[in-house]
């Protein structure tokens, strides 16, 4: 399909006019369901410091900000286009929540050790340089007892849809669970929801020991 290479490139790093006008709103709409799964698993509380990695259009980031009441949410993104769009949205926020946006990737998170009570990332694991290095870096910035929730689609469905050919790295829940356990996380749950004709989406929870 002619649009697939473009969608793959824009999913990896939304950019330019297409990124701003199309990808942000598209990602927000398309990923509302998985964001809800991840949101529920995060079970945040007022006053916590929360990290989202690869927030894209910001649907989950700003839902967390709206509901947290008080606390601080840090968003990390590789895409300057998505950061600029989120910065405009953050300026309109009211209340005691602080939203801080940072340019960067999961490979080198710009935070001190043990900074966060919660971390989440949705549909980004396919683009990480290494699953293990990404999980290690998230573990570093989580406080002991802090929780990571990772949202992703089933490897079989993404494979059948042709995303592996476009360079997406696909993982099963078992592979991500095994990598998290190896790095000293305790995995605490796997929420899932069927997408009609498109496999499942997952929200995998892991607690830093
Ligand atoms: C498919 S989009 C998903 C966006 C959003 N989380 C959602 O589910 O709607 C992937 C996002 O992750 C970002 N990204 C890609 N590789 C990344 C990495 N290594 N570290 C952090 N973010 C990354 C991209 O810039 C893009 O905005």
Break the fold down into its secondary structure elements and pairings:
Layout: H1 4-12, H2 16-30, H3 32-42, E1 49-53, H4 59-68, E2 70-77, H5 80-91, E3 96-103, E4 116-122, H6 131-141, E5 142-153, H7 155-160, H8 173-182, E6 185-194, E7 200-208
Parallel strand pairs: 1-2, 1-4, 2-3, 4-5
Antiparallel strand pairs: 5-7, 6-7
The chain binds S-adenosylmethionine.
Residues 11-14, 27, 31, 53-57, 76-79, 82, 105-107, 122-124, 127-128 line the site of S-adenosylmethionine.
Describe this structure in words.
- This protein has one domain (about 5-209): 3-Layer(aba) Sandwich (Rossmann fold).
- About 40% of the residues lie in helices and about 30% in strands.
- It has 8 helices and 7 strands.
- A 7-stranded mixed beta sheet has the order 3-2-1-4-5-7-6, with helices on both faces.
- About 45% of the residues are buried.
- S-adenosylmethionine binds near residues 77 and 79.
Outline type: globular
Proportion of residues in β-strands:
25-35%
Report the CATH architecture.
3-Layer(aba) Sandwich
- Could you tell me the number of beta strands? 7
User: Kindly, what is the distance between the CA atoms of the first and last residues, rounded to a whole number of angstroms?
Assistant: 45 Å
Order of strands across the widest beta sheet?
3-2-1-4-5-7-6
The H-level CATH homologous superfamily, spelled out, is Vaccinia Virus protein VP39
């Amino acid at each position: 399909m002619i649009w697939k290479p473009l969608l793959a490139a824009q999913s990896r790093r939304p950019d330019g006019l297409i990124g701003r006008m199309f990808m942000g709103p598209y990602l927000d709409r398309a990923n509302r369901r998985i964001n809800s799964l991840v949101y529920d698993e995060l079970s945040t509380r007022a006053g916590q410091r929360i990290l989202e990695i690869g927030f894209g259009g910001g649907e989950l980031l700003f839902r967390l900000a709206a509901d947290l009441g008080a606390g601080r949410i840090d968003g990390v993104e590789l895409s300057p286009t998505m950061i600029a769009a989120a910065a405009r949205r953050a300026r309109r926020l009211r209340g005691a929540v602080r939203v801080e946006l940072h340019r960067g990737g999961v490979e080198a998170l710009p935070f001190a050790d043990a900074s966060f009570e919660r971390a989440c990332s949705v549909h980004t694991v396919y683009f990480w340089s290494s699953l293990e290095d990404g999980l290690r870096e998230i573990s570093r910035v989580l406080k002991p007892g802090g929780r990571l929730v990772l949202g992703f689609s089933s490897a079989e469905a993404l494979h059948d849809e042709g995303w592996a050919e476009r360079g997406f790295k696909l993982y099963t829940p078992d592979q991500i669970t095994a990598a998290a356990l190896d790095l000293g996380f305790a995995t605490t749950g796997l929420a899932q929801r069927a997408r009609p004709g498109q496999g499942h989406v997952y929200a995998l929870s892991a607690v830093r020991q």
